[in-house]
Known about the structure:
Layout: H1 3-10, H2 13-21, H3 27-33, H4 36-40, H5 46-56, H6 78-88
Amino acid sequence: MSDAEIIKNILPLRAINALAMHGIRSVEQIKANYPHGLLRARGFGMQSLRAVESAFFPGQSYDPNYRVPLSSRGASNISELLAQDLESVNVGNFTDLQ
């Protein structure tokens, strides 16, 4: 079965056209652009992405709202850095502004 036939059996025509407009025409290109490159294609949405996932990435599910927890980004140092920044700021006398 050719790539075009595989893609035609998996995706709606709108999604196929959206990917083609972005130069994505083969199964390999779909896999290489998963998920961000696919979602950048206008007309290719989450429903089409779920169809791609079920066909080519069984068991995977991209969550666009996922955020890396602050603790794994070094959040323990954030309060220390903010305190240092605030100490270095010279705000002067606010009563002079009135």
